[in-house]
């Protein structure tokens, strides 16, 4: 029997590709064309609610399509608002990647708030609606911008800062009093929370290294956040100014990682959040006790994510994408996890209206155009606001804040 | 506005490009891919041993990366994450395409190999190269992956552990097993 002594060099020599082995010259062009043509990230947007608002710009034809959709949106919302007159849900800020539009759903009046600032994403509003923040991406880099809804110039709050995590919950959140803005950013290789004082423009990093996904408590005294701790993502709270030791409140999540803070209950007693396994094959909704710590698992038999607590704190809308993307739906349950039932199949959740009377959903019926719809949490009064041929995630950026109050 | 740029300053390095791509910036994503696709392709080729499968795996990896990028928690781990995706696509290709095994059999019918003895470097002849390739073609997807990442890509145990998401001790053991499997295949084919 022959035996062999293999050297490292012999293995490399035999297995390394020859020099002529190379991808086609137009490989990158093909990839660019493919991602421009594909609807793309729908499943991902569903998992991470914050990502619904950060969209893909670029192709000129898409911009033309966006303009057309914008016109349709204005008309659709105007019609819908007539049907739902009396629902005091305020204006809707819609970003189409190059400009921010303010739409009055009652009248359909539309005005352009911001334009010519490069690629815009991650729109957030203060609780009273008077301040708007967003991120810009230009050749010069990324910047956090703030401006007053009532007018005035856009102020650059931070430059040379990388927002993080994109696509996993809120990047920016205003404090309940509108005086501060907390953002998840990357500093070097670590995620941190940046706190900006709106009036003075002073800013600084707060909390421990590895902190992200900031979420203000209703009383403004504390901030819940995701915390990368020893390679795992946990849920923690700290004082709103970042002083003192943070306190982990998520408890034992098994092999699941917190996937981002989502909502405080109105009384500040609970934080609702999603947690997922690293391979994304398992995901559930939890709520953590703010004072005592520890979490209650609310969903068990599905792949649930993106909890959105109703403004009065009684109901939770959430997404399930068990099985194929075509089978996903929006479910609803009581705040304690009871009475779980499907609200609308083939749909993704965009959040609650400010008055809690309606949910805004993206409905994706098989083999039919997608629709942006509203319906009541009991499943009645479904109305179509607009229709679009591809995922809304690819063409529009709304300011809806997943349970964040808005005017 | 007075943000301490000294603390926060960060050049537009890869993590920033990744973040922009996560936000939907296709230009940033294209730039990321443009800088990496040749390495991805060559790694895929080394594992799969043919142009068509390597191209398929590389394309699927890049398109999948675009779809899944918002899930990546740490932009600085983009490269390991991308390579993990490529490796998984290569494994899938090896498991699902029976035509690969046909090619493998063709490789091994070259016959007449003069395999050097224990104390000689088996890589000294073209025939030896063919023998190693033939034996490699008989290995399973995981074994191929470990051998390519370590002996062809020259990745450290730590890097491989990050790619396959396994403890370093496990990586060492599996790499050792893969190499032993290659040696055993060589021995078996030349009895």
Quick rundown:
The complex is a heterodimer of chains A (407) and B (191). Chain A has 407 residues and is mainly beta.
Q: What does this molecule look like?
A:
The complex is a heterodimer of chains A (407) and B (191). Chain A is mainly beta. Chain A is 12% helix and 41% strand. Chain A has helices at residues 8-15, 27-37, 42-47, 60-83; strands spanning 92-95, 99-103, 110-115, 119-125, 131-138, 141-148, 155-159, 162-163, 172-174, 180-187, 190-197, 203-206, 211-216, 222-229, 232-239, 247-248, 256-264, 270-277, 283-289, 295-297, 304-309, 315-320, 329-334, 341-345, 347-352, 359-363, 370-375, 383-388, 397-398. In chain A, 53% of the residues are buried. By secondary structure, chain B is an all-alpha fold. Chain B is 72% helix and 0% strand. Chain B contains ten helices and no strands. Chain B has helices at residues 5-8, 14-22, 26-48, 51-68, 78-96, 98-108, 126-137, 141-152, 157-164, 168-189. In chain B, α8 crosses α10 (168-189). The longest helix of chain B has 23 residues, at 26-48. The interface between A and B is large, with 83 and 78 residues.
């Amino acid at each position: 029997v022959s035996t062999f002594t293999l050297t490292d060099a012999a293995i490399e020599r035999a297995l390394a590709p020859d020099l002529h082995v190379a991808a086609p010259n137009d490989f990158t062009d093909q990839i660019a064309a493919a991602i421009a043509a594909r609807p793309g990230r729908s499943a991902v947007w569903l998992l991470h609610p914050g990502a619904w608002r950060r969209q893909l710009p670029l192709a000129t034809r898409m911009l033309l399509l966006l303009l057309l959709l914008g016109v349709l949106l204005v008309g659709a919302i105007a019609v819908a608002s007539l049907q739902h007159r009396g629902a005091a849900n305020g204006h809707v800020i819609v970003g189409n990647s190059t400009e921010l539009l303010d739409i009055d759903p009652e009248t359909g009046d539309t005005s352009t708030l911001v334009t010519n600032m490069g690629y815009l994403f991650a729109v957030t509003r203060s609780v009273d609606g008077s301040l708007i923040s967003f991120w810009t991406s230009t050749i010069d880099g990324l910047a956090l911008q703030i401006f007053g809804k009532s007018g005035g110039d856009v102020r650059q709050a931070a430059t040379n800062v990388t927002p993080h995590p994109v696509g996993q919950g809120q990047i920016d959140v205003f404090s309940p009093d509108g005086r501060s803005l907390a953002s998840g950013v990357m500093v070097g290789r670590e995620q941190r929370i940046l706190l900006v004082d709106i009036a003075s423009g002073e800013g600084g990093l707060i909390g421990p290294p590895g902190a992200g996904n900031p979420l203000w408590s209703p009383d403004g005294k504390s901030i819940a956040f995701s915390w990368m701790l020893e390679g795992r993502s946990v849920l923690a709270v700290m004082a709103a100014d970042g002083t003192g030791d943070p306190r982990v409140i998520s408890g034992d999540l098994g092999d699941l990682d917190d996937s981002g803070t989502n909502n405080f209950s109105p009384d500040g007693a609970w934080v609702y959040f999603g947690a997922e396994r690293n391979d994304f094959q398992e995901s559930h909704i939890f709520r953590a006790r703010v004072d005592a710590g520890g979490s209650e698992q609310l969903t068990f038999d599905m792949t649930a994510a993106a909890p959105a607590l109703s403004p009065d704190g009684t109901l939770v809308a959430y997404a399930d994408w068990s099985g194929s993307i075509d089978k996903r739906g929006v479910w609803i349950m009581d705040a304690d996890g009871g009475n779980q039932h499907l609200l609308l199949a083939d749909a993704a959740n965009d959040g609650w209206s400010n008055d809690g009377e309606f949910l805004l959903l993206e409905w994706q019926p098989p083999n039919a155009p997608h629709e942006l719809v509203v319906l009541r949490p009991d499943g009645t009064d479904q109305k179509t606001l607009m229709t679009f041929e591809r995922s809304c995630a690819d063409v529009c950026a709304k300011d809806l804040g997943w349970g964040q109050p808005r005017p | 506005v007075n943000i301490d740029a000294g603390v926060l300053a960060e050049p537009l390095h890869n993590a920033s490009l990744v973040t922009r791509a996560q936000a939907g910036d296709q230009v940033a994503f294209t730039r990321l891919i443009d800088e990496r696709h040749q390495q991805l392709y060559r790694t895929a080729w080394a594992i799969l041993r043919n142009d068509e499968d390597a191209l398929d795996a590389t394309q699927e990896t890049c398109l999948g990366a675009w779809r899944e990028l918002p899930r990546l928690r740490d932009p600085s781990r983009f490269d390991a994450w991308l390579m993990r995706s490529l490796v998984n696509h290569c494994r899938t290709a090896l498991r699902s395409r029976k035509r690969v095994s046909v090619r493998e059999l063709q490789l091994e019918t070259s016959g007449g190999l003069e395999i050097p003895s224990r104390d000689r470097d088996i890589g000294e002849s073209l025939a030896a190269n063919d023998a190693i390739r033939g034996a490699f073609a008989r290995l399973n997807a995981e074994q191929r992956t470990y051998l390519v990442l370590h002996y062809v890509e020259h990745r450290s145990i730590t890097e491989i552990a990050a790619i396959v998401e396994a403890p370093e001790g496990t990586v060492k053991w599996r790499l050792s097993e893969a190499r032993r499997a290659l040696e055993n295949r060589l021995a078996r084919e030349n009895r």
